Each structure stands twice: as C-alpha cells, then as structure tokens.
Amino acid sequence: MSDFIDLLGLPFMQRAMLAAIFTGLAAPAIGTYLVQRRLALMGDGIGHVAVTGVAIGLLTGTSPTWTAVLVAIAGAITIEVIRERGHANGDVALALLFYGGLAGGVLITGLANESGATLQTYLFGSITTISITDVIVTMVLAAVVVLVGLGLAPQLFAVAQDQEFAKVAGLNIRFYNLLVAVLAAVSVTVAMRTVGLLLVSALMVVPVATAQQLSRSFRTTLAAAMVLGTVASLGGLLLSAYASFHARVAPGPTIVLLALACFVVSWPVGVWLRSRRRLRQPFPVVGATAHHTADEHPHEHGEDCGHVAVPHGDHVDYVHDGHRHAAHGRHYDEH
Amino acid sequence: MSEPDTEPPVVELDDGAVAIAGRPVLRHIDLTVRQGEFLALMGANGSGKSTLVRALTGLWPLATGSLRLFGTPFDRFHDWQRIGFVPQRGGATSGVPASVWEVVASGRLTRRRPLRPLRRADRAAIDDALEVVGLAHRARDGVSSLSGGQQQRVLIARALAGEPELFFLDEPTAGVDLPNQQVLADTLETLSGRGATIVLVAHELGPMASLIDRAVVMRDGLIAYDGPPLASEQVATAHLHLHEHGHHHAVPDSHDHAPHVSSLIEGGTP
Q1: Bridge-partner residues for B198, per DSSP?
Q2: Residue A38, by phi and psi: left (phi above 0), alpha (psi -120 to 50) or beta?
Q3: Does A282 reside within a domain?
Q4: Same domain, A183 and A305
Q5: pLDDT at residue A27 tops 60
Q6: Continuous segment of H or E residues that includes residue A309
Q7: Residue B165 resides in a domain
Q8: Is A215 within 8 Å of chain B by CB?
Q9: Is there a single domain that holds both residue A105 and residue A182?
Q10: B147 in a domain, yes or no?
Q11: Which whole number is the average pLDDT over A227-256?
Q12: What is its EC number (chain B) (predicted)?
C-alpha cells in the first residue's frame, strides 16, 4: 500500500491525475448534447478522423496533439455540414468519415516510417507518459469545453431539443450546431491522451447513459454525467496504477470499463424506477360509472399495505391481481 | 399606442410562393392577418397548410413574393420575441431526459441574452405559461412521462413563455384525445382573450371551432377560400364557394385548375 502512495507522489502520476480529472469533466459535458441530438456516435467519427491528424503530425514532425485538434475540427464541421444539408443521413455521414479517417491515419503513419506502436499510444491512450505541456494544453482545452458547455447550456439545450422552434425563437442554429461540433472535436483530442481515440466516445457517452437512468431533468443529467465521468477517469487511473504492481493494466481500457461498470449498476435501478413511476401514475378521472362492490375482501388496504397505491381523483386506488380497489365506507369498490 | 386601424397588419404576405427542391408547392398566396384575429388554416393533407406556416415563420424561404411581419420586411425582422411557434408534435422529447420546466423555459430564450441568469420576470413568465396550460403541478416531471396531449400542452407553454403577440400553431390537436383538446381550446381562448393573434393549422377544429374568427382553406398549394368560419363538412368543397376578397389570380369559381398546374410542375414542355 505504501508503494502505491509513493507512486501517487511521482510527477508523472500527478500529471496523469490532472489530465484524468479534466478529461472526465469535459467529455461528458459535450457528450450530453450529442446524446440529446441522438448523435451518440459522433465522438467516434471524430476520433477516427483525428487518427489522420495524429499521423500528419508524425509525418511533418509537428505536435500530433495540435494537428489532431485541427483535423478533428475539420472532420466535425464536415459531419455537421453533411448532416445539415441532408445529403446523407447523420449516421451515413459518420460512417464515411470513420473509415476515411482511420485508413488515412494508418497509411500516413506508414509513410512517416513510424511503427504501429507509436500510433497505438494515440489509439488507446498513454496517460502516464503525458508531458507537462500536454497536461497544460489538456487543462486549457477542457476548461474551454466545460465553460462553453455550461455557460451556453440554455441555448445549446434548446437547439438540440427542437431545431425548428429554436430557429423561430431567433437563435442562430447553424452557429450553435457548429459550436457543438467544434467542442466535440476539441474534447476528443483532449481525451486522446487519456483513453485513446478509439475509446474517446465511451467517456463522452457512457456517463450520460448512466446518469439518465436515474434523472428526470436535463440539468441533473448533465451534472451527474460530469461527476460520473470524473469518477470513472480518475478511478480507472488509480485502479490501474494500483493493479500495476501485480500485472500490466493499461489505464485507458480500465477507465472505460469502470464507466461501463457504473452503467451496469445503474441500469437495473433505472428500469425499476421507471416501472415504479409508471405503476404509480394517477388514473384518469372520468364521469361516474356503475357502482361495483368488490367481492369478499378480508385484506385491509392502507399505507404500506404492500399494494401499489395510485391516486385517482380525490381518493386512492389499491392495485392488486388486476383489480383497482377503492375504499368506500366499510367495503371496497372496483374502480 | 396608435389607433388599431393604423397599426400595420401582423402578417402580410403578398403573392408568396414556396418551391421545395425546385417544385412549386405554394403559389400566389396573398394573406393578411390583422392584430387580434383568430385564423384557422384548413385543408386536406398535402394541401400546403403546414408549408404556409413554415414560410410565414421563415423555416422555408419564399421563392417569390414579399413577407412582412408586424410591418417589417422579413429580412429585417428581428423581434422574434413577438412570435410564438408551436411545431407539429414530435419535439417534446429528445435523447436525454428533460423536465417539463426545462422545455418550457427554453421558450424564454427569445427574451434572454446568452450567459445571463434567469431574472425574476423570466421565472414568472415560465410559471404563468405552465399555469395557463394546467401543467404547473407537473413542472418537475420528465417530459417523456407525459401523455401525447400533455406533451402538446408543454409545447404550447414553451411558446407562451416568451410572451409573444402572434402564435403559429401547427396541428396542435392531431392525435390528441378530446379532454386534452378541450384544455388546448381553453388555453387558446385565454390567449385570444389577452389580445394575441393566432394562426392555427388544423385538420379538424373540434372544440376550437367556436373560437375561430376566420377560416382560410388551402387546396393544392393555393388559397381556395378565405372568409368566415366554415363547418367541417364545408371545408372539402370550400373552393367551390366564391372568393371573399377576389384575388387577382381568381379563376371562375367552379373551375378546377389543378390539372393545368400539375402539368407545369411535371416540367412538361411549354
């Protein structure tokens, strides 16, 4: 255990922890808007395009982080334009960029005489080798994503919720659509060093999917997703560091699997909550119908009697075995 | 305030036409809506009534013609807070849960500047909008847990939150049960009573029939009738009635000119 504490004190580990926290906050902040637009896979599309960006950086000898940012933004804008013009379905546009980006990246990496191992650090992340400059870039970009994502939340929410209404409300929907695309591209490159380009989308989407199991409002979904993203990325990093004394455990996949584990835990709870909410929805009040008295009824209904109590106008119906029983004097009525 | 007579019309479309993918859909539309009117835009499916509302709100560009809103030419119109739009249903839910309050609050964006918190007036308008449609008690619930009719009321409250003077409602009663239609009708009566101008696209008027001041019937992209409200069985034959205002393109009333037009659309050799 003391070895683990010592490990946390090492500079590379502290850099990795900072990167993990900022990535964990930023990726779900923009991922929530992508899920809201039903473009959950957009992060994946941009991630694949960014592979080409990384390869161009390797080929030209410039920083792969910056070439990845630029190419990812270009790719995200292309996806958005194709989608807006309606030339192809959103998912077809994504697919085209998926394959083009990945194939181009692998081809150019070969041209640059770089090994697959170099590319792999970008595909699957290498958070523990992150340099001090990269940490600063990650923190700045992540902070921009979070500030814009939260600051313009009312506008981004309205545009993602209903484009036509937002347009008639006078919002510049093209600006906000492109803004989401650019922010998504930026957070993909931010998360590139943490979980890798191929797993980026998991950190943008899985915490949102987990959060919405339990939430009813957009604001709680957004906030909970950011908390869950941070828990997953920091927790996954620490878990892999702790396990590294016994086996080779890569942080990127650990982070993604931890995020998925959170979903697996929350999903049954969400199913239970939703079915409970449906069962307890008030029965509609309609005009008086014939008066039916329940047959012999030895059980006495009441609070915590074990049966689902559903509001029905000015009284409560108790639901069991396909019947709705409402107290009426000393007997129960069938409602 | 000046005299009502000198106020410019709320909506003024002169010889408007809309083409979708190059095909003329709406032609020769002259429509003037005055302040405080309650107008029903009626007609069969595909007659162009929804397209007309989308043209009036700027969602479809006009191929020809000029549109003025509140006396301002459309390209220079920026007073979006004066317009409340209720699109055809399908917009109340999205990929992420949203509460009723949040959806209604997004209607307030016409009056809010970016990066500013909600002011007290904003909150009051949102609460009032929820109150008018009778959903104040469901404000914290998820929109997806509401019935179709209730979701439609949420969309009306969203338009209401911006406190507009002119409402465009696109088929708010489609697929909505009778009790919810009654609530919608009561809501529109309240709005109309507050002085709002209402343009309502409807296939069936149902409980709203008694509120209408004026009916415009669309048929194959043309205005076939513009005049006092019609009973629903009259709508189908409205193009046979005489034009109230005698448009310049008016043709003999019993003459059905649809075939001539369709040959133009198909691109037949002139």
Answers
A1: B38, B167
A2: left
A3: no
A4: no
A5: yes
A6: strand A308-312
A7: yes
A8: yes
A9: yes
A10: yes
A11: 94
A12: 3.6.3.-
Cβ–Cβ pairs < 8 A, chains A and B: 101
Angstrom CA distances, B232 to A140, B7, B33, B209, B266, stand at 63, 32, 22, 9, 32
Percent of residues, chain A, with pLDDT higher than 70: 98
Q: Structure tokens of A315?
A: 């009284």
**Quick one: A172 and A214 in the same domain?**
yes
Characterize the bridge pairing of strands A308-312 and B166-170.
unpaired
Both A193 and A302 in a single domain?
A: no
**Cα B129 to Cα B136: distance, rounded to the nearest angstrom:** 8
CA distances from A43 to A34, A176, A197 (A): 8, 17, 9
Domain extent for A234: 2-276
Helices A173-192, A42-60: inter-axial angle, 10-degree rounding: 60
Number of domains in chain A: 2
Q: Which chain A residue shows the shortest CA-CA distance from B86?
A: A165
For residue B76, the Cα-to-chain-centroid distance in whole angstroms is 21
Is B90 part of a structural domain of the chain?
A: yes
Q: Which residues of chain A neighbour B70 with C-beta distances below 8 Å?
A: none
ipTM of the complex: 0.86
Q: Does residue B257 belong to any structural domain of this protein? A: no
The answer to whether residue A50 is domain-embedded is yes
Q: Are A248 and A302 found together in one domain?
A: no
- pTM comes to 0.87
B-chain residues near A159 (CB < 8 A) = none
Short-list B31, B85, B16, B30, CA closest to B57:
B85
CA proximity to A34, closest of A165, A200, A269:
A200
- Is A226 in the same domain as A307? no
Q: What is the pLDDT of residue A2?
A: 84
Q: Chain A partners of B102 at a C-beta cutoff of 8 Å?
A: 157, 217-219
Task: List pLDDT tens digits, range A164-222.
Answer: 999 999 999 999 999 999 999 999 998 898 899 989 899 999 999 999 999 999 999 99
Can you give the CATH number for the domain in which A52 is found? 1.10.3470.10
Distance from CA of B92 to the nearest CA of A (A): 7
Contact at CB, B96 and A152, closer than 8 angstroms: no
Residue in this structure with the two tokens 């906030």, named with its chain if needed: A223
Residues of chain B found within 8 Å of residue A152, distances taken between Cβ atoms: 114-115
Give the DSSP letter string of A51-105. Answer: HHHHHHHHHHTS-HHHHHHHHHHHHHHHHHHHHHHTSS-HHHHHHHHHHHHHHHH
Q: Which residue has the tokens 């990945």?
A: A102
Domain end: A251, A276, A301, which one?
A276
B145 touches chain A (CB under 8 A): yes
Rounded to an integer, what distance in angstroms lies between the CA atom of residue A267 and that of residue A276?
14
Rounded CA-CA distance A166/A36 in Å is 15
Please report the pLDDT score of residue B102 as a whole number.
96
Is B70's Cβ below 8 Å from some Cβ in A? no
Asked whether residue A287 is assigned to any structural domain, the reply reads no
Residue A134 vs residue A297, higher pLDDT: A134
What is the total count of domains within chain B?
1
Tell me the residue range of the domain where B169 lies.
Answer: 11-241
Residues A147 and A96 in one domain: yes
B265 pLDDT higher than 60: no
| Same-domain check for residues A214 and A328 | no
A283 within some domain:
no
